[in-house]
Every structure is written in C-alpha cells, then in structure tokens.
Amino acid sequence: MKQVMTWDEWATCDATALADLIKHGEVTAAEIAGQAKLATEKVNPSLNAVVELFEDAINAPFAEGTNAQGPFAGVPLLIKDLGPGVKGRLQEQGSKFFKGFRQTSDAFLTTKIRQSGLNIIGRSATPEFGVASSAENPEIYVVRNPWNTDYTSFGSSAGAVASVAAGVLPLAHATDGGGSIRIPAGAQGLVGLKSSRGVLSIAPALSDITGYVSTQGCVSRSVRDSALFIDSCRGGAPGEFMPYWKAEGSYTELVKRDPPRLKIAVSHEWGNYHADPHFVTELERTVRLLEELGHYVEWRTPDIDFEAAFAAQTTCYISNFAQFIQRQLEKRGLTEPPEDLVEPINRKIWLKGRDMSYSERWLMQDVFNSTSRQLGAFYEQWDMILTPSFSAPTPLTGDKRYLTLSDNPDVMDWFYSLWELFSYTPLASLTGTPGISVPLAWQTSGIPLGMHFQTRQANDGQLLQLAAQLERAAGGRFNGQRIPQVHVTV
Predict the structure, then answer these.
(1) What angle do CA 146, 149, 153 make, to 5 degrees?
(2) Whole-number percent of the chain with pLDDT over 70
(3) From 95, 124, 153, 156, active-site residue
(4) What is the C-alpha to C-alpha distance for residues 231 and 210, in angstroms, rounded to an integer?
C-alpha cells in the first residue's frame, strides 16, 4: 500500500479537500483509505486510538453501499465503538463483557453516513460503555493525548478525537451524552459540535424520547467539515417520536458568511462550580476577540437551579445505564455483571439504578422540563453562552478518580467528582440544545483548551457560523503552527 501524499500535504487536507481530490480524479478513494491506514500504523502504537481497521473497506471503499457520488466521495471515517451499528462489524464498547459482539444490521445513521460518501474504515476506542472520562483500562487499551502522552485524552469519544488530532484522518464519528464530543475536542484542539436533539438520529435502539441526552456527531479539524457532516447525515428515521429540525439552508453555505452581531453571555461560575484561574484568563482573552469581531459580550449566568439540574442528569445516567446493563444480563441469563468483565464503577451504577422507581424518573423528567424552559427563556434575551469546555486542567493518564476503574465506594460521589471537572457541557445535553467546542485557548501544560459556545434549540447553524468566523480570524486554521507531540508529520 503506497503513500500518495506527503504527510505535510495529508495534514493540511480536511475531508472536504480530500473529497475534491477524489472527485477531480487526482487520487482514488482506495488510495486515500490506504494512506489513512499508513497514518494509523505510524501513530497508533503511541496513542491506542484506533481499535480496528477494516481491510476490505480500505481496499474497496464502495463495496458496502458507500455512495461514490456523495459529497464526501469516499473519504475515510472511523466510527466510535459504541455508536451506530455497522452490519457484520465488531462493536465491543470498550468492554471485555462485549468482546466478540457483532452488529447484525446497519443503524439508520450508518446508512446516512454511507449515503454521504463517507467510507467507514474502522472503529475508534472508547471507555467501557462510554461512561468514564477517558478510555483507560490497561487490560484493553489506554488512549493517550497526542499533544502530550502523559495526559489523558478525555472521553468518551477518546479514540475519535485522538486519531483526528494526530492526523490519522480529518474527520471521525463521535457521540455526546454530557460532553463526550466537546470535552475531548477541547483538550486536543479540534472542532467538536454536539447537535440539537432532533438533528442526527439515534435509531433504532433509542429515540430522542428514550435516549434523552444521547446525540450523534463528529469531530473535525475544520468547521466546514462539521457543517458538511450535519448537512449530509441529518434527519429522523421512520417512527421517530418527535419531528426532526429542518435547516433553512445548507450549513456548508452558511459558514462561508459571518454571523450577525451576536449577544453572548459569558460565565465560568456554574452553580457550585467555577473554572481554574488560568482558564478564566483564557476566557477573558476570548471575550476580547469576540468584541473585536463586533459581538456584544457580557458576564451573565442563566438563572437556573444548577444543583437540581446536575442531580437530575445524574439520575438519568444511572437509570439509563443500569437498564442497559440489565437487558444485557437478561439476554445472557446472568443475575449480575461479572466482576472480571465489567469495571467497578459500572457495576456500582447498575446496582444503584436497577430498581429505580418511576417516581424518581418522573422527578428527573420534571427537572429536565423546568430547566429547559428556564434556559429557553434566557435565550430569548441572549444568542449564546460562552464558557470553557471544562473547568480544571486535563489530568495525567492513570488518574483513577475519573475512571470506571475507580475504587470509590460511593457512585454518587464519583459522579459529582466528574461534574467538578466537566461542569459546563452537561446543560446542553440535558436540554437538548446544541453546543460546540472551538480550539481558541491553551492550558499551562501546553495542551489545548476549547472554548464552549451553546445556544437555543435548532440554532446549530449559527454555532457553526460563529466557529467559522473565529477560524478565519485565526488565519483559516486553528492552533496556529502548533502540532501535537504525536502526529503524522513528526
């Protein structure tokens, strides 16, 4: 398998540019997939971001329904190992409990991905069932941050983000249920959009009325790639419980124009949580940039009962996940998760949530509703809210406080330690509103720090439009001339 581009050329091409090369006959989709394989072989031993490559999809990009005439024209894509099912492929969800499990059919979003022309060439790493803050189980894999491998990648879209940041490919599928796209993107210098509830389908296993916080999406190096992914893959499956948002026009075209003057609220004091002092300095620097671009920015926090919101979201995670595990146990004739196959915190979550009452779920739903209404009223006065993407410095790899390998005896205490670090992204997941992490700042460690913008439902396009304006202000490419410690060009 030969290299068809230099690594410098490869690293400067986003998915849109690669698609143009394929469409103009300068390279073939198989050659591009082959170079993605070479890129994986070059950096993955240091990162463990890619779990498996599909050799048949690399050699024959259009053999399984990938649309050669789609906008992505055969550009390679990694799919997260707990996202939409891919027929006949392993989906082990970062767990020994799911070792050897294969999906029997394509999920609805998988068909949309194929129709867009994206060629699914492999699967990316994730923590067990996507629960922990990063993918770190030495018995399975430890995903590392390419900017500095001493630090965690964050998660749960750990492998997706690390592979794109290291230059394996320009775009990867990811999922977000509380920040799992935005947080790792923020710590690795990528664009990470969590779309509104009702944009990208989570059918057939879940719907937006049962998944609540779960959303599908992607991570990318360029805003236009994220815009094209949404344009190409959005839409509901037959039988959705709710209508799906219709965009007034193409996001791909929208991001070519600057947004109107926006009224942006900025905050780092989120209920009981607040940001690291250096993060506040970087937040202030972002405010000055926004003002230079003509936007109105004021320090303002939504009038929301954050304590109730975090409690409700914790209930949602525990009850949803516990029932997921319970169904798997029933299918296998087991009475409890095996200690040697399921990580300690995930067993505790199952135990905590397996018998949760309808009354507890109803109270959770009541807070989801009241919080969404309060935030909706805030967006009547403000276009967006700006915070950091997370509130404290990225931990070193192996910090078990945030892992499902933790020996914390209290699962509620474990969750609340997560909220101390991941303070700002869960609100958009609870309310079903969109949020985006944009690579605008840096931590004192030299690792990137994303700035997080969120807005009202169905306003995803304006988030992308603002991100594109910020990208142009950065000279057309985020992160300047800096590249990660582990990268295809190194």
Answers:
(1) 65
(2) 100
(3) 156
(4) 24
Q: Which residues contact 179 (CB under 8 A, 6 or more apart)?
A: 194, 389, 390, 422, 424, 425, 426, 429
Do 468 and 221 form a contact (C-beta atoms < 8 A)? no
pLDDT in tens, 338-351: 999 999 999 999 99
**Is 0.85 topped by the overall pTM?**
yes
* Residue 1 scores a pLDDT above 80: no
Q: Which of 133, 134, 180, 222 is catalytic?
A: 180
Catalytic, 80? Answer yes
pLDDT in tens, 352-372: 999 999 999 999 999 999 999
Active-site residue among 42, 80, 112, 194?
A: 80
| pLDDT tens sequence across 104-152 | 999 999 999 999 999 999 999 999 999 998 999 999 999 999 999 999 9
